[in-house]
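To the team - zinc ion complex, inputs and output below.
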Amino acid sequence: MTEVTRAWDRVQLARKPERPHSLDYIAAMISGFVELHGDRRYSDDPAIVAGVGAFNGRTVMVVGHQKGANTRENLDRNFGMPGPDGYRKALRVFRHAEKFGFPVLCFIDTPGADPGLGSEERGQATAVAENLLELASLRVPSVSVVIGEGGSGGALAISVTDRLLMLENSVYAVASPEACAAILWKDSSAAPDAAEALKLTAQDLMGFGMIDEIIPEPEPAHEAMDATLQRASAAIERHLSEIEKITAEDGIDHLLELRYQKYRNIGSWVDRQEEILTELPSSFASAVHTND
Amino acid sequence: MPDFFRRKPTFNRDDADQDGPVVPDGLWVKCHKCKDLVYSKDFERWYRVCPKCDHHARLTATQRIDYLLDSGSFEEWDRGIVTADPLSFDANGDVYKEKVQKTARKADQPESLITGRGRIRGYDAVVSATEFAFLGASMGSAFGEKFVRAVERAIELRLPFISISSSGGARMHESTFSLMQMAKTTAALSRLGEHKLPHFSILTDPCYGGVTASYATVADIIMAEPGAMIGFAGPRVIEQITRQKLPQGFQTAEFLLEHGMIDMVCRRSELPATLSLLLLHYADATMGRHQPEYAYAGTPGEEGDS
Ligand SMILES: [Zn+2]
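Output:
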């Protein structure tokens, strides 16, 4: 049997239904919020909320995964798992933001993209991929915050932004600990071990240089909702005004170059080409490239 | 020096082909689908496609390159790039670093992606091909880095980019490092597009998860081999989670074509002809010549634009 580990505690906290969700953040920090609906293709996905509003004196577009606070709400919101319609709603809103020069704020909180027959029929993979492409070259500043669960490609699809922040008790990983345990441990009860191995906490990702700030939770977000929302708002403002300043001084192309390099440089690999050419014995000693 | 750093044409390597045909005595090949026997030399000559039932057996990356590109035209790049195991991943004694070395020997490749440049019926292109025998051609740091370098070199050389993919998805052992390769590879293709260079994507059996949901479907033209299984979530996962009964032919290349997700289903034997025809159509655009003003305006790098 496996004992409960620290990473696993974070996973539990990140998933707490009482934790503030995207609409709570929007209510606290976006004034005059007008929610926008539908992908203009097929439907309106309730697992993604989107809209326009004011953040500290500027108009912004907001996109977030939306989980429910209880089972009933979660059934309505599909547990925050968007289908292609949700990602296409986000895509439409990103393009809308670009058209009017509004910065984009995203709130990340999903177990992953919806795995279902309808989602596959309407191109779930393509919908995720097209968002990654759009965000990579979106000509407005963008900030995303992982507020709960950052579940794989379904989370990434709205988080490829200039700045990526994480709440202290949020997690971000390539797969859920349960799925990882089932596949690599061949035992889904090993999820706590998998959570540890996946290095999915905000502290881990800060250490890898993948995120820009950890928003502290001296008390877990669901026990100190107002303080958490205020801290998040202040952090977003700090980062957004920084990238707005870069854009104003050096132009949007410079911001896009920085965004490209941010993701371009993530990776951990060694180049053994030298060894191949000189036929030296293999080792991992040569130039280790890690993101910094 | 491990042998797998050396590229050598390796035909008849059926051990690496999980879906592949069983070879009873080396002379005859048994089709995985219809179980018919085919003379192995013919089977190789026919691109490992069953003459009875048209089943397209899985290929290694090397076979893929050998079938698609003009003989001797392939120049491989970045063969030395391998994972640095950023998380020191260990699934209860199943150590990632050891697994990589073992699988590299078995697959006879140092990583799950091969990149380089070559010619298809005389037309130059940059090509990437996945090696499914290497941890299900999962995408980790090395895969992403090789892919992005290839795209960036395609931009430098002003060459079209052709990706050939079959993959189980992102490589779990590198967690967020793998996940971020989805963003990294796609961002590189965004640049390729800004330079008005085409990306043609060929989806082969099986192609799932993080690869289908990133660079492989961000293409100007998407084609798939007949019968290839392609999707986001695997059919077993979907059945387990949703308890939905999946229809006949779900997630096949033909299913994707019917639902508007790909441009065409292309038989393996016809891929070189189809691709070379496309390369011909896009040659002028790729070279930036004889194009009307409106098509060429705004191409980065033309007007001192950064
Ligand atoms: Zn057959």
